[in-house]
Amino acid sequence: MSSNETSVVQRFQNRSDAFWSGIRDAAGAPAMVLFAGMVGFGAMGKTNGFDVWFTSFTTFFMFALPGQVVLLEMAITGSSVLAIALAVTLTSTRFVTMTVTLFPQFHQKDRNRNLYASVHLLAMTAWAISMKEFHSIEVKHRLSYFVGLGLLCWLISIPGTILGFYLAGMVPPAVTLGLVFINPLFFLLTFTEVKPWINRIAILMGCIFGPIFFIVDRDTSLLTAGVIGGTLAYFLDRKFLRKRAGMIG
C-alpha cells in the first residue's frame, strides 16, 4: 500500500469523524463568505419590497444565490410564474454538472434515495471544497464529510438572510451588492486550487468569453459563455494536455 493510500485511509476513523470534520472545514471562511453573501441578499429583498418570510424562505428552500437574485428581479418586474421558473431553472443548470462530477465519487452503498436529500446541500462552495478534498478522503467517508460541510453552509445562510433584511438601509447600496458577489469570488479562488488543469483553463475561458457574450446579449451571456468556454476547455484538455501526459492515445 502506498503512502498516499495510507493517508487516505487514516484521515478519518469513522463516518462521525468525517461529518464533524466537514463541519469544522465549513466553519471558517466558507461559512463567513456565505453568511456575508446572504446578508446582501436579505438586504436586497427588503429594499425591493419583499417581506422577511418570502426572502428567507427562498434561502431555506432554494439555497442558490444566483437563482434567488433572478427570482427577486423577475418578481419585481411582474414576470409570469412560468417565466420565473424557466429563468431560475436556467441559472441552476450548473447543478447538473456539479452533481455528475461529485456524486459518482461517493461510495456505491451511499448512492441511494437518501442522496435526494443530500443534493439540497450542494452549492458552489461545498462542491468546490469537496472536489479539492475528496482525493484525500476514503471513499466510504466522503458522503459524511460532504453532508457536514454542506449542512453548516446551508444553516448559516438562513440567519444571514434574516440579518441582512433587518440591516437593510444601514449600509450603502454598493456595499450590499458587494456582499452578494463575495460568494462567487470565494468559489473562484477555491476552485483554482483543484489540481486538474482543465479547471483553470475553464475559468480562463469564462473570463475571456463572459464579457464578450455580455456585450452581445446580456440575458444569455452567462449560459452561452459557460457552454462555449467549458466545451473549449474540454477540447484543449482532451487534445493536448491529456495526450501530452500519455493518458489517451
Provide structural commentary.
This protein has helices at 3-10, 15-26, 29-47, 52-61, 65-76, 81-91, 94-102, 115-118, 124-133, 142-167, 173-180, 182-191, 197-216, 221-245. With 249 residues, the chain is mostly helical. It has 2 domains: 3-192, no CATH class; 196-249, no CATH class. It is globular, with a radius of gyration of 19 Å.
Labels describing this entry:
single chain, mainly alpha, 2 domains, 14 helices, globular, disordered N terminus
Q: Uncertain spans, ≥5 residues at pLDDT below 50? A: 1-7
Helical content class: over 70%
Write down the overall mean pLDDT.
82
Give the N-terminus to C-terminus distance in angstroms.
Answer: 29 Å
Report the sheet with the most strands, covering strand number, pairing sense and barrel closure. Answer: none
Count of strand segments: 0
| Shape estimate | globular
* Beta-strand residue fraction: under 5%
Number of domains: 2
Keywords: Cell membrane, Membrane, Transmembrane, Transmembrane helix, Transport
Protein name: Branched-chain amino acid ABC transporter permease
Subcellular location: Cell membrane
Family: Belongs to the AzlC family.
Compact summary:
It is found in: Cell membrane. With 249 residues, the chain is mostly helical.
